[in-house]
Amino acid sequence: GAGVSQSPRYKVAKRGQDVALRCDPISGHVSLFWYQQALGQGPEFLTYFQNEAQLDKSGLPSDRFFAERPEGSVSTLKIQRTQQEDSAVYLCASSLVLGGPMATNEKLFFGSGTQLSVL
Amino acid sequence: KQEVTQIPAALSVPEGENLVLNCSFTDSAIYNLQWFRQDPGKGLTSLLLIQSSQREQTSGRLNASLDKSSGRSTLYIAASQPGDSATYLCAVRGETSGSRLTFGEGTQLTVNP
């Protein structure tokens, strides 16, 4: 597709339920990011992949959060035993490459997000 | 820890007005700064990216400036239109923060016809 695709668009979960959120990045994009955006806030970094390697997972808020990108394209963010504080929009973004200070093609392209509501 | 602040939090202007959105960051050791636009229920669209060695970038009616040493950036929108109504977010990539972007909380802009 032409852009970053995320599914489902909306997810309602009961507290304690496990959920899986999917991200299809732009074809050929090496870098993939997950961000969490609470209502009225800016996005907060969760994790970063370069191809299939998860290079940074320091933003994951607890060990209930797990992300994978096994073949270096599609990524899944899994949240186990969901809690009410997990309610947020989960955004996926991809970029062609993550370079050094002079990288000029580092623009991020975001999907529309998955809005997760935990009841 | 890098902190990004955007002022004002919300802004309402009549159509045709020129306006400035402000962004400040606490750690000047950055690789780049990006301005994004977010429409309700949508993801973010990158508007402008300024490298740390650059002073400004322009795209159409948008002009973004960067003063790295003082930790400030501005987004100037000329001749605003109702279609410009959205939330504008700035984000920095720090030299010590790896791959992550640190975002401000955004400025919600409303342009009234």
What structural keywords apply?
heterodimer, A: 119 residues, mainly beta, seven-stranded mixed sheet, four-stranded antiparallel sheet, 0% helix, B: 113 residues, six-stranded mixed sheet, five-stranded antiparallel sheet, globular
Question: How would you describe this structure to a colleague?
Answer:
The complex is a heterodimer of chains A (119) and B (113). Chain A is mainly beta and 119 residues long. Helix content of chain A is 0%, strand content 46%. The radius of gyration of chain A is 14 Å and the shape is globular. Chain A starts with a strand and ends with a strand. Chain B has 113 residues and is mostly beta strands. In chain B, strands 2, 4, 5, 9, 10 and 11 form a six-stranded mixed β-sheet that branches. A five-stranded antiparallel β-sheet of chain B has the order 1-3-8-7-6, with no helix packed on it. The chains are: A mainly beta (119), B mainly beta (113). At the A-B interface, strand 5 and strand 10 of A face strand 4, strand 5, strand 9 and strand 10 of B.
Indicate the mean pLDDT of chain B. 94
Work out the number of β strands of chain B. Answer: 11
Shape of chain A: globular
Q: How many distinct helices of chain B?
A: 0
Strand-and-helix sequence of chain B, N→C? EEEEEEEEEEE
Number of helices of chain A: 0
Uncertain segments of chain B are none
Structural category of chain B: mainly beta
Q: Report, as a whole number of angstroms, the end-to-end distance of chain B.
A: 41 Å
C-alpha-based Rg of chain B, rounded: 13 Å
Share of residues in helices of chain A: under 10%
Short recap of the structure:
Chain A has 119 residues and is an all-beta fold.
